[in-house]
Design goal:
By secondary structure, the protein is of the alpha/beta class. It has 10 helices and 17 strands. It has a 5-stranded mixed beta sheet, sandwiched between helices. Strands 5-4-1-6 form a 4-stranded mixed beta sheet, with no helix packed on it. α4 (173-187) links the parallel β10 (147-154) and β11. α2 (99-115) packs parallel to α3. The protein starts with a strand and ends in an 8-residue tail after the last helix.
Length: 363
Amino acid sequence: MSTLLIKNARLVVTMDTQGREIPGGGVFARDGVIEAVGSSAELPTVADEVIDARDQVVIPGLVNTHHHMYQTLTRACVQDNELFGWLQGLYPIWANLTPEMVRVSTQTAMAELLLSGCTTTSDHLYIYPNGVRLDDSIEGAAQIGMRFHAARGSMSVGESKGGLPPDRVVEDEAAILKETQRLIERWHNRGRFAMQRVVVAPCSPFSVSRELMRDSALLAREYGVSMHTHLAENDNDIAYTREKFGCTPAEYAQDVGWVGHDVWCAHCVKLDTAGIGLFARSGTGVAHCLSGSIARRSNSSGRSGTNQVARWPWRRPLPGISFVHWRRGRSFLCRHGLPTSEARDDGDHQRATESVARIDICR
């Protein structure tokens, strides 16, 4: 068994229920699991690896609850556009993705996240041209070593059927479900402190059918895995759902079985009052991604009540990424010169981490 000791930190910010901040503190871990957090004098004095964190602040790692890592390759393209126009400009470019591009973009995004203080991440990959598989992302991530929730996204409704994406980038629904099942059976680790899990994640109301949403929920719950999708991102998104399904996005989510503690949705900046209440009552999570929504002109209202992800108070998040602190996290990072008196809402951190079904790493 390997052990790690971080000692003599200028301050350890625990994010625990008491909000403790420990001058001269440290962390002791065995086989990647934290056994003790406290004063350095109270911790073991020897370990296989010892880090002297003098003049550094030790904080819990951040959890990134929504990302599209392949978009790292194209984030300078089709700027200054609202959501639907932005997507329609990029779909033809993304149709040229290859397995190597997915692996490289995954590793690039993860390197950026680690440098931003993030140690656990999800990624929502929903386009699979030219032999691309979610395995490409998972295998690339394994070389980086982050805790990873790989979300098997999908698009099945193309332009010819009234959807937004071109027909050439959508998939057959039976094939989507079969592939998602394969990925769960191949890659999903249910164990405590697992480094790799799989998420069922149809892309959005404007790119998949009602039937695929329902069948995906049934598959996810059969295997006990989490569910993720986009919802209520901007006015066009709302209008599409009303015209296509005759209801609001929250009503649609409820109708197809996409509310509950095992679900978290991206954006939701256009949820109405009834939708916010539904999500709050059902424990449905939200990764609000404010910077990405602002860039796509989604006009976030900042309303509260849902299980929202807390923004990182000390750094500006990368575009389109939502961060949350681990509360009583199982991994810590050392950083120089971070302030220690910023306001925090640990309740938001706890609820948001629960949204991605990782109680094991936040308690």
